[in-house]
């Protein structure tokens, strides 16, 4: 993230090789690879970095086990390999996650079909694991599941992450490599030459209102589910089908799962999961058409809440989990190419690249394969950049950084966690901490010091940026962390330089946003629910 006081000079005085529009994981990956390969590259995001899908995914870095059933061996192979690279290069940010899938009499998929898929999974990852366990052994992995008809269960390993922090780490690596990235800068219109080819973007600073014309040899739209909005003269007939995936966040004590528990929903056979994440338990996901206003945060609906709670009642009947147990909710919109399939879950998850008069649109794909998507985009871009020659090979995702020493006074888990999330800045974050700020915020795995560092160095422009993306306190704490706002203010307001009036306005806006889009639907969420339906 480039310091905002460089905004005017950066946008007004340079001609770029590439301008990337969209600050999610795809855009961040493209900026990183472009900068690493010698291109003058700028990224702009009209809201906050990772505001859209890339902070509201299911948080899984997975190989796409279900894609094997659809015969998509290439997508699964690529995903498995990229998962392994991320586990190696982003330790502490991308971590292994064990999954448990119970085998019940009369339920699909059966043991042997699932075991075959897992054998292929292992082959692609270059490893072998024991997968099937007898009932008594399996119940040690998932002690709270339904026992009637239990024949045993299968276990396998994938990975999980904090998706917003992954975007921020990739952007930081891109800036260190020479890229430039700004949030709250809108691509208001495409600039075209006399022949109609795209030659740049008219940009508007959303914080100050000033406009700039930024010229470039190539503009890449990496706006995900919002991609059709920038295609002012679409030539490719394919369009996007926005699909909403909604999630519940529960206290870890209320749904205690040491491993992820996966099941097929009794209503429609779709996969649903519950897994430990950042000190809470995450439950997801739905997969339905999203017809709401794409400019507004997506929200879960009553029907989706019931759907996910029905899955929990089916798999964990003795826990009797209900709405009162939900800490928060969130919903993300996936960019999927519309093939007209009546079942949204059957739409493909491959990425696509469209070139239209100098505008390169990249959309679709999976969080796990963001690096491969970025490299593919640059291969398509190469013919439009005749002055540029580069051998596009995948390099380690992140440059190595010195680990935090035991003398930092933190347990090994937190040292690895901070190094994974903050990379080269982890040491500075620890040094910046005031007394008591290296303690964990109750109900989370975050440290108070992370709030100070985010406010100081991570392009926070809104309070929601701080609490929903730089940290995840808005998801992990009841009422979006409202009870902690006085201490958060004491730490962050001086770092942000906000006057009292500004803080009060930001706090009011954040509380309203959280009630409308991150709480359960109800009296406060009725308008948001109607928009999302």
CATH superfamily of the largest domain: D-Amino Acid Oxidase, subunit A, domain 2
Give the integer mean of the pLDDT values.
90
Oligomeric category = single chain
Highest CATH level, the class of the largest domain: Alpha Beta
- The CATH architecture of the largest domain can be named as 2-Layer Sandwich
What is the CATH third-level topology name of the largest domain?
Answer: D-Amino Acid Oxidase, Chain A, domain 2
Instruction: Compute the separation of the termini in Å.
Output: 35 Å
Shape: globular
Radius of gyration: 23 Å
The assigned structural class equals alpha+beta
List keywords for this structure.
eight-stranded mixed beta sheet; Helicase, Ruva Protein, domain 3; D-Amino Acid Oxidase, Chain A, domain 2; FAD/NAD(P)-binding domain; ten-stranded mixed beta sheet; 533 residues; single chain; 34% helix
Can you give a write-up of this model?
- The protein is 34% helix and 23% strand.
- The protein is of the alpha+beta class and 533 residues long.
- The protein folds into three domains: 162 residues, FAD/NAD(P)-binding domain; 168 residues, D-Amino Acid Oxidase, subunit A, domain 2 (D-Amino Acid Oxidase, Chain A, domain 2, 2-Layer Sandwich), CATH 3.30.9.10; 92 residues, Helicase, Ruva Protein, domain 3 (Orthogonal Bundle).
- Strand 8 and strand 9 form a beta hairpin.
- The C terminus is likely disordered.
């Amino acid at each position: 993230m480039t310091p905002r006081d460089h905004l005017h000079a950066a946008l007004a005085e340079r001609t770029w090789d590439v301008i990337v529009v969209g600050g999610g994981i795809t855009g961040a990956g493209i900026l990183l690879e472009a900068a690493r390969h010698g291109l003058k590259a700028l990224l702009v995001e009209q809201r906050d970095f990772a505001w859209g899908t890339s902070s509201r995914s299911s948080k899984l870095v997975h190989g796409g086990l279900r894609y094997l059933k659809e015969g998509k061996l290439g997508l699964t192979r690529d995903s498995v390999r990229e998962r392994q690279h991320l586990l190696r290069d982003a330790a502490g940010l991308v971590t292994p996650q064990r999954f448990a899938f119970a085998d019940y009499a009369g339920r699909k998929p059966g043991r042997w079909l699932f075991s075959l898929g897992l054998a292929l999974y292992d082959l692609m990852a270059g490893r072998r694991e024991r997968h099937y366990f007898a009932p008594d052994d399996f119940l040690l992995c998932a002690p709270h599941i339904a026992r009637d008809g239990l024949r045993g269960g299968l276990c396998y390993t994938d990975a999980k992450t904090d998706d917003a922090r992954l975007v921020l780490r990739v952007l930081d690596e891109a800036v260190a490599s020479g890229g430039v990235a700004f949030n709250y800068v809108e691509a208001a219109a495409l600039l075209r030459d006399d022949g109609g080819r795209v030659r740049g973007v008219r940009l508007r600073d959303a914080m100050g209102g000033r406009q700039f014309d930024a010229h470039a040899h190539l503009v890449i739209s990496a706006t995900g589910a919002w991609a059709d909005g920038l295609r002012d003269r679409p030539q490719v007939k394919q369009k996007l089908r926005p699909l909403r995936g909604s999630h519940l966040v529960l206290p870890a004590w209320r749904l205690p799962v040491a491993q992820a528990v996966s099941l097929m929903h009794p209503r429609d056979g779709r996969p649903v999961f519950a897994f430990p994440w950042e000190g809470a338990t995450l439950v997801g996901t739905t997969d339905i058409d999203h017809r709401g206003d794409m400019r507004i945060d997506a929200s879960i609906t009553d029907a989706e809440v019931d759907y996910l709670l029905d899955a929990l009642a089916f798999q964990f009947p003795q826990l009797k989990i209900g709405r009162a147990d939900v800490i928060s909710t969130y919903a993300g919109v996936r960019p999927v190419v519309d093939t007209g399939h009546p079942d949204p879950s059957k739409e493909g998850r491959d990425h696509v690249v469209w070139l239209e008069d100098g505008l390169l649109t990249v959309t679709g794909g999976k969080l796990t394969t963001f690096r491969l998507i970025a490299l593919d985009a640059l291969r398509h871009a190469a013919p439009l950049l005749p002055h540029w020659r580069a051998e596009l090979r995948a390099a380690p995702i992140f440059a190595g950084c010195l680990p935090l020493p035991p003398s930092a006074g933190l347990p090994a888990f937190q040292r690895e966690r901070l190094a994974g999330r903050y990379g080269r800045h982890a040491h500075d974050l620890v040094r910046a901490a005031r007394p008591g700020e290296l303690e964990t915020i109750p109900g989370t795995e975050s440290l108070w010091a992370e709030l100070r560092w985010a406010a100081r160095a991570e392009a926070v422009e809104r309070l929601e940026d701080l609490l929903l993306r730089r940290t995840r306190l808005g998801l992990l704490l009841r009422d979006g962390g409202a009870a902690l706002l006085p201490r958060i203010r004491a730490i962050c307001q001086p770092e942000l330089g906000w006057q009292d009036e500004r803080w009060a306005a930001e706090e009011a806006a954040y509380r309203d946003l959280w009630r409308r889009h991150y709480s359960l639907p109800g009296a406060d969420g009725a308008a948001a629910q109607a928009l999302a339906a």
